[in-house]
Every structure is written in structure tokens, then in C-alpha cells.
Amino acid sequence: MRKIAVVTGTRAEYGLYKNTLQEIKENAYLELKLIVTGTHLSEEFGYTVKEIIDDGFEIEDKIPILMRNSSKDGISKEMGLLMIQLSQTFERIKPDILLILGDRYEIFAAASVAMVMNIPIAHISGGEITEGAIDEQIRHSITKMANIHFPGADVYARNIINMGEEPWRVFNVGDPGIENIKLCRLLTKEELKAVLKTDIDRDTLLVTYHPVTLERDMLPYQMENLIKALNKVNKNMIITYPNADNGGDYIIKELEDFKKNNAKVHLFKNLGVLKYLSVMNLCGAVIGNSSSALVEAPYLKIPVVNIGNRQKGRLMADNIICCNNNYEDILQAVNKALCSEFKEKVKKTKSLYGEGKTSIEITKILETIEINDKLLKKKLGWS
């Protein structure tokens, strides 16, 4: 059997992996070796490893790295800790392929270790552009380390090839976020109310704001204006914690204070994939700077207000209103998203990220691709 190691460090990333992990688990020729790290093992972020266990996945290794310090030096140290421990784990399990997703620093650490140990790397969601965060450099660095590429759209596949990657390595399988929606039975209003203790309807805002890592000094200004605008709009709000990037602890503190001062704020460390998508499906608009607003919300035909530079450069469907971090601009954008005229426009939105069977296609390639010198020895495809 071919051993497929997978490293996951966040709730969002696991949610995108989930269907592919299930396909690997059920494949007679593949053996899943799941390694869990990052915020999954943190009570502060909801201890989401429990969700992985509840979904029936066997965990090969748990690697705690969070140091309760989302500063630049803290994250650098976490990367170092992860690399040391992953080298030991990879040496023990001897994976045939490492499957990774996205552009987190944990994933960069995993790719670096695998590259040095001559383990072929398969990378999901490469070729994308996000100009406001270090994710940009991380993502493209992983692309140059990876041996197999699974981009989510044609334009991202072209970006990978334009970076010098050989076309035979690139497989446009669509975005796993779209497949998640197609395979889920989303919860009803009544089911959501039973677990979230509040009504979710078209008068509800779903809010997620992550640190913009290249604008750390601007974070107090950004949060002040975001909270001021949300207060002014005065709608029922479902707000989720940010990720554990530099500045995440500051955002959490501001959101906790916001919750204390506004009874319409319902703050959650983690909703999980099913509840999150179900809230998105029923809410009036998605607000913030999360990639899910750009991928899943267009498919569900939900208005989006994308704030600031974190997602600058990504594909933007017709349901997305982009604005800067100024209070007046955020307020104007949210009001536009909630108006009946814009909602009518959003009904015609088309997904830009495919509608295919992403997990099945990825698993088939992992099973059948030849692991040989041709795969391991990379060259610039356009030279």
C-alpha cells in the first residue's frame, strides 16, 4: 500500500481536507497517515482535534507547537519545533507522498522537511494570489517545493505553470470548498438555533476577520473601524475566532470585549465545517477577510463584504464587495450587501472555483501517479 501523510494545523484547513481524507481512508491501495498540530490541539481555539476524532479518523501523531504567543518570533519558534518533530515522525512512518493544503506556516514547515527527506509533495490550492499576507510567499515557496499540484481553478493552474512548473504535474481538480457544500446536508434554521442558541436568518451577519500579517501595525485601526461599523449596522452577528497568525491574540481580545458590550454578538472559537456552512447558507451577508467568503459564498449566492488587502489578488465573483478598512467604507459596503437590489444581483452569481469531484480526483492521482526520478527531480518547465 502507498502511505499518504497529511498534516493539518487549523479548523479551516481540515474542513477542506475532510472529503479527501475520507476517500484516502476508504481506498484499498492507500494508507492514511494523519498528523495533527497547531490550533487543533489548543483549548483556546476550541480543541478541534476532537472533531477529527469524532469524524472517525485515526491520528498517527499529535504535535503540539502553540506557545500562546502569536508574535513573529513566537511563530518562527513554532515552525522550528514542528520541523524537528515532523522529521522524526516522517522517519518513523516513511510516507510515500506528503499531501498538504494551502499557505499556513505549519504547512511550509511540513513541506520543507519533506523536501529535504526526498518525500514527494502534493499541494492543494497553489497558484492563488493574496497580496496582503505572508501567505503569498509561503504559498509560492511550497509550489516550488511541491512535485504534484492540485489548484482550484484554471487561472491558478496557469499561474503555477508560469512559475516554471511542468504542466504534467498540474491537475486542476476544483476547490475542495465547493465539494464540501455539495456533499453536506446543511442544517436548517431550527437545527442551528438548537446548537447556537440564536436565530440565523437574512438579518444575520457571519463575520470572520483574520490578521493581515504584512499590516500588523495597522491592526488596532482595522479592528476599531470594523467593530464601530458592525455596531452601527446593529444586526445579529455570528463571529468566529481568527486564526493563530501574528496579531490573532489581539483580535480575540477585541472580539471578546465587543461581545461583552453588544448582546447581538455571538462569538465562537470554532463552528466546524457543517455549522459554518449552514450559517453561511442562511445568513444575510458574510463580512471580513476569510477565503471562505470568496470560494463558498459565491456558490451559495450569499453577499460578501471583503475588507482590506488580505485577499487582494484572488478571483472575485459578482457577489463580492471589496472595501478598505475605513469605517465609512465598511459601513457603506455592508449596507449595500444587505440591500434588496444587490441581493437580486447576487442570485445570478456563478462560482469561479469549479463544481467537480475534487476528493475523488485527488485520490485517484495519489494512487496512480508514478513515484520515480521524473517525479522527484524537478526542472523549470519553460527553460
Outline:
This protein has 383 residues and is an alpha/beta fold. It has helices spanning 11-26, 49-54, 72-93, 105-116, 135-145, 154-162, 176-183, 189-196, 219-233, 248-261, 272-282, 292-300, 327-338, 340-346, 358-368, 373-376, and strands spanning 2-8, 30-37, 59-63, 97-101, 121-124, 148-150, 204-208, 236-240, 265-268, 285-288, 304-307, 320-323.
Q: Count the helices. How many?
A: 16
* End-to-end separation: 36 Å
Query: Strand portion, in percent?
Result: 15-25%
Q: Please provide the count of β strands.
A: 12
Please tell me the CATH architecture of the largest domain by its name.
3-Layer(aba) Sandwich
The CATH superfamily of the largest domain is identified as Glycogen Phosphorylase B
Q: Output mean pLDDT.
A: 93
Shape annotation? globular
Q: How many structural units, i.e. domains?
A: 2
Output the radius of gyration: 20 Å
Assigned CATH class of the largest domain = Alpha Beta
Helix content: 40-55%
Give me the side-by-side strand order of the main sheet: 3-2-1-4-5-6
Point out poorly predicted stretches.
Answer: none
